[in-house]
Amino acid sequence: MVAVATILVVDDEPRIVQLVRDYLEHGGFTVLVASDGKEALRSARTGRPDLIVLDLGLPGLDGLDVARELRRDGEVPIIMLTARTEESDKLVGLELGADDYLTKPFSPKELVARVRAVLRRAESLRSPSDVIRVGPDVELDVSRMEARFGGRRIDLTKTEFQLLPPWPGSRAGCSLGLSCWMLCEAWHSSLTSGRSTLTSRTSERRSSRIRARRDLC
Fold this sequence. Notes:
Number of domains: 2
Number of strands: 9
Structural class: alpha/beta
Helix content: 40-55%
CATH class of the largest domain: Alpha Beta
Strand order of the largest sheet: 2-1-3-4-5
Largest sheet: 5 strands, parallel
Order of helices and strands: EHEHEHEHEHEEEEHHH
Strand content: 15-25%
CATH architecture of the largest domain: 3-Layer(aba) Sandwich
Shape: globular
CATH superfamily of the largest domain: Response regulator
Radius of gyration: 19 Å
Distance between the termini: 31 Å
CATH topology of the largest domain: Rossmann fold
Oligomer: single chain
């Protein structure tokens, strides 16, 4: 199964958010939305999007500040949107690590095309060693600390991901079995909870079970 990319759209204009969301969902993407900088950072950290469409003119924490924080956390691709036309704004955005730039008003069809192009570029730049595939269903992205089972992203915390094998000296068969067991545990948890994130208590209980099982290897 081909994994569905998740796009976070950040803009304080509801009309633009809805328009962009409609076109992206029609294009086959999963869409998260945020209307200000703080919400955008929370959504980026919990939703782990594959790409962020980020408006520069946000209330409070503006788009440039959000981009700085995102770059401290990782390398998620960013397409910036803005009504600003000054070249200096574009240069600052690109220097902060934005992958592309669109000036309002813009064509939503062009935005979708740019999203696809940026995702293709990002995928081509990823080292093959960063992605570990276990059988036909399990995929571990080491650089992003993400796991997928059957093409669907599994909710693992960074601590849980770091507990994944292999470890130096571990037996290959045990490591393989534990990886699959962990992802099945996470899959079952996401299905039964009906939520995209885990509470800290649930996460700690699952981490404890993972550690106990890992110690058997």
